[in-house]
Flagellar protein FliL (Candidatus Pantoea floridensis), 161 residues
Amino acid sequence: MSDNAKAKGRKRSLLIPVLLIVTLAACSVAGYAVWRMMNKHEGSQTEATKVEPPPAPVFFAMDTFTVNLVNPDNDPDRVLYVGFTLRLPDEDTRRRLNDYLPEVRSRLLLLLSRQSATVLATEQGKQALVEQIKQVLAPPLVKNQPTQVVSDVLFTAFILR
């Protein structure tokens, strides 16, 4: 063999491993790039679907009320014994209601004493009472105060006798 042929053989023998290494490196870089893009896309989806948990509910438990009810035959034994808890939107409202508790209880006693026993015996009557409680507590307790928002009224005791 000539020297020229030996040089060509050596170049070819070096060229194949170099091409293999370059091809392997290119495939590795491409695979890594695809993997990063797929993980980046999944990570943004989980951040987008993450929702903040709702704030903890604020409850204000009222003492039970016992009132005589309005009835057509003026029977003094028609009595309502009711206890309920107010669900409030924030801690400030709970603090305000607690600070003015005597006025809150007065408003509720006046409302409850105007109720009719026959109306309260029905489910619609109880739901109407819930709405009336929300309305009677809505006006500000003193001047220059915001209105009270009561999200819900939850009965804890309800005895109609």
